[in-house]
Amino acid sequence: SGLTIGSNADGDLDIVSDGTNVDSINIESAGGITLDAGTAGSGIVYEDDGTEMMRIHNSSSDVILESKVSDKDIIFKVNDGGSSTEVARFDGDVSSLRFAANKSLALGAAANTITGDGTDISFALASGSDINIAANIGLTFGDDGEKIEGDGTDLTISGNNINLTA
């Protein structure tokens, strides 16, 4: 039938199917399914046509989800109204977490978000909310020649020229 269960030369268990359907090997359980890898560094490996793509393993009981192909991304998509929509990705090329354009990072209440459109960064806050910068931490502009900083009592605005326009 195109399905084999056997042992390879190393004594490993191989389950092989020559089926081409998306579920040509289907593991289904009315209860849970446990994948238990006994060697921390080996973990659970996902391959595509023999190329290791991803590995889930542990280090000192920390779970590591690791992309294995150089400079490739881990992409998170959701079904948004019937459309597969990218929300975020871990970008392997530049080692950063990126949110898709016009997708937001919600902090605390859903009304407090940070969003970027590729040009501007927008902060949206619930009515009556504030953006708080801790005392003695400055907000600098350009090459740090201009700065706004507060110490909990006084607000200092510094720069070569300070222009206030009504």
By DSSP, the count of extended strands is: 14
Count of discrete alpha- or pi-helical segments spanning 4 or more residues? 0
Alpha-beta classification: mainly beta
State the helical fraction. under 10%
Relevant terms:
166 residues; mainly beta; three-stranded antiparallel β-sheet; 14 strands; 0% helix
Helix-strand layout with pairing:
Elements: E1 3-7, E2 13-17, E3 44-48, E4 51-59, E5 62-67, E6 74-80, E7 83-91, E8 96-99, E9 104-106, E10 113-116, E11 121-124, E12 138-141, E13 146-150, E14 155-158
Antiparallel strand pairs: 1-2, 3-4, 4-5, 6-7, 7-8, 9-10, 10-11, 12-13, 13-14
Give a structural overview:
- By secondary structure, the chain is mainly β.
- The protein is elongated, with a radius of gyration of 26 Å.
- It has strands spanning 3-7, 13-17, 44-48, 51-59, 62-67, 74-80, 83-91, 96-99, 104-106, 113-116, 121-124, 138-141, 146-150, 155-158.
- The protein has no helices and 14 strands.
- Strand 3 (44-48) and strand 4 form a beta hairpin.
- It has a three-stranded antiparallel sheet, with no helix packed on it.
Can I get a quick summary?
This protein is mainly beta.
